[in-house]
Specification:
The chain is mostly helical. Helix content is 72%, strand content 0%.
Length: 68
């Protein structure tokens, strides 16, 4: 939240998009696996992580400001 606020409010910011998206993916992946720890259907797990990751990507892209 602090990085996002800094990115939106400051002309000078260091915003690591890859880290942000990896964190969201990791959280979504853990939640998908925790639903059924014995299940290991990669396709289904990836389907369950798609929406949170897509939402985070849109949020990050909206937070970027053009330079100049």
């Amino acid at each position: 939240a602090q990085r996002t606020a800094l990115a939106r409010e400051s002309a000078i910011c260091k915003f690591n998009i890859g880290t942000e998206l990896r964190m969201v993916f990791g959280t979504a992946l853990r939640e998908a696996v925790n639903v059924d720890p014995d299940r290991f259907d990669r396709v289904q797990i990836l389907k369950e992580t798609h929406d949170p990751l897509a939402t985070a990507t849109r949020r990050v892209l909206r937070g970027l400001k053009p330079l100049g």
